[in-house]
Amino acid sequence: MGSARAPRAVPGAPAGQRASGAQRLTVRCTARDTDFRRGRRKQDARRVRYPIADCTVPAQDDIGFLNSRLAAGPRTLPAAGIFIAKNHGMTSLNALKIKLFADGADKAGMLQLYRNPLIQGMTTNPTLMRKAGIVDYEAFAHDVLETVRSKPISFEVFADDFAEMRRQALRMRDWQENVYVKIPVLSPHGESAVELIKSLAHDGVKLNVTAILSERQVAQVAGALVAEVPSVVSIFAGRIADTGRNPMPVVRAAHWLLREQPRAEILWASVREVFNIFQAADSGAHIVTVPHDLLRKAIEMCGRDLDDLSLDTVRMFDRDAKAAGYALATERVVEPLPVPVVFSKAA
Length: 347
Description:
By secondary structure, this protein is α/β, with parallel strands linked by helices. The chain is built from twelve helices and twelve strands.
């Protein structure tokens, strides 16, 4: 028997870091393998590890799950891999060690969320403003800023050349002390905005560098920022995930790339679902900006009992089916014809 080995680091985590609350459970079972190359069967006692998505259930429930699967036989086990039972111990937004920002341009929604102590900042962009029907950009910004005074809020430049971007950025900076100016990492023509970022940072403009999707872009931005000036580096994690790639390594790498920028904060952007908020927290991002509708959903749903939610779901199906008046045709039962009775003549 060898000495017990230390638990392995979680894949994707920085060197030497262990996932807090993570537990590794391994089980021994007997698996029957067929060695086709040698033409013989062999019985092999092996250590089986298999994957389950990040869990928020207590470890004893995980063990019960394992035992039930093993009792049914080794063939019922999932494919080999790594099993990580990650007991966050929380599904509460209040317990997350990440700042929640509200992302949107609906004025009523912005002001409502601004008053919520859970929300620590606001972001918007020209696309969201257009969808909200905003016609006068500057008038809308001043209208919002009459209320939004104590929390950071980002407004984005909307020019297609760097000279005009710079003029807009300096004007936005002067709107209010809590304003961050969003500068896309590229121009619409595909040119790097690094020189503009460097120039504005040296002018003391608090920047939110946006639309970042790669480590290379993070590295370029890190070299352009000024250590004494607050800044935000917005990584569009949701868009990275849309390509089938895992955004976590990019976000985690940003910590190292921005190590000489102590006032730079990493922001997880383009949230697609509530669980992305928890992923953002796990990645070590300082901020996650969330669309208004998803924020409301998160506030309503986080921490709900799953059995209760299951019942609510079934009741929804039942309620909607009845409201729609759905019915399946009933088969018509054809009564058989009576059999004629034949009386024989008496002998």
